[in-house]
Every structure is written in structure tokens, then in C-alpha cells.
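note to self: dont lose this again. the chain is below, predicted strucutre after it. 260 aa total, dont forget to put it in the shared folder this time
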Amino acid sequence: MLTGKTAIVTGSTSGIGLGIARALAAKGADILLNGFGDAPEINQLRAEMAAQYGVKVAYCGADMTQAADIERMIATANRELGKIDIVVNNAGIQHVAPVQAFPVDRWDAVIAINLTAPFLIVRAVLGQMLERNWGRIINIASVHGQVASVGKSAYVASKHGIIGLTKAVALETATTGVTCNAICPGWVLTPLVQKQVDDLATREQISNEEASVKLLGDKQPSQQFTSPEQLGALTVYLCSDAACNMLGATLPVDGGWLAQ
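---
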């Protein structure tokens, strides 16, 4: 379905981004991975993905806080994959503190990675997508793009911002073959979240199942985590012809969080 297409997925050496990259590769897209990690492990991941899915897998360890690194990532994708058809802006960070004590450098970093980097990437790739009259821009936002939580001012602001950016880009490309949409996950079972579950279970001497329910709390009524694979499947759908008239959508995958 995506054979002949190429995709950049930021923050894709683990977690949500890796799940999305695998899903796109499974449908035939060549992939540029991005993220931090141990070089031998990343090389092994590239080789395994390329062999498993029969696609090209490139890598660039660009730092999403640095505009020059983002330019280098775009250049790497163009050079090694030939073009850029799909962009998934997934890289993100979080910091928790009350507003009056929120460190300014942490605010700057959250906004840089979660909001400014997606803008810079879209700005850089949109021209070639419009020239070919085909492109898919998928921003991994969050339920926090629509509701807030205490202590997460920078994250909430950045995710509200990415939803606004999504809508603006969608309108600017509405008469073309380029679409821009946002996925808004709630709790997702990534390795980092699994560690939180394990630590909570150990600390309170309860089962992992009980710890999961406790962590999900009242926010996710389904009492179930979303998986990276499910987010990957939704991303693949947004890249399909069936989604060609979905423009500026904000798609919650949150177990009922926003329904309350």
C-alpha cells in the first residue's frame, strides 16, 4: 500500500515512534528513524527492520532542539531515501512542575521539541510534497492538546499548539493532495510507562494488573492502555486513500478520557 513512499518518524528508536515506524515499513514505506540510543543497537534495529520488511531504513540522530540538526535530518532523508512523502512528528518530552516553579529552560526545551521542531520539519518538507501533489503529515499530539492536567503547563501548551498548527497546515493545503492530521493518545504502554507500572507494583506490593489500573486512574475509563501498534495502525490509515479527505482532524485514542 505504501510501496515507493518514504517516511520520517521522529523519536522512533523506541516506544510510540518505533511502533509507528514498524507499521509504515510493514506496508512498504522506506523509513528514516530518528532518536537517541546506543549506536550498535540502532544499527541492529535498522538491519532487522530492513530485512523483516524489505525496505530501506536510514537513521539520523538529530536533536529536535537544534534547527541545524533538523535541517541535517531532512537532508539525510532526501539523500538516502530520495524524497520525503510522509512525516510523523512524534518526538516529545515532558516536565512536571507548578507554573510558579517551572524552570524556564525546561519550558523552552518542551516547546522546542514538541512544537517548534514539528513546525520546522513541516516548513522544510511541504514544498516537495506540494510539487508531487501528495503528502501525509501526522502530528502525534495528546489528549493534553484538548484538556489540561496540573503541573504540565509546558506540555499542555505545546500540545494545544501542535493541534493549532495541524489545523492551519490542513487549511493551507486543503485543495491539494497533502493532508495534515493529529493523533491524540492518552496513556500508551511504552517501555517507560511499563517501568512506571512495574515500580508502582513493587512499591505498593500489588500485582501489575492492579498497578496498571491505579496508574490509569479516573482519566482513562477503559482501564486499558493504548499500544504503539494501535497508533501505528491508525497512522497507516491516515496515509491511505481512504483518509484523503480527512483534514485537520484531531483523533483521540484515549480509552474515553475526552468523553468524560
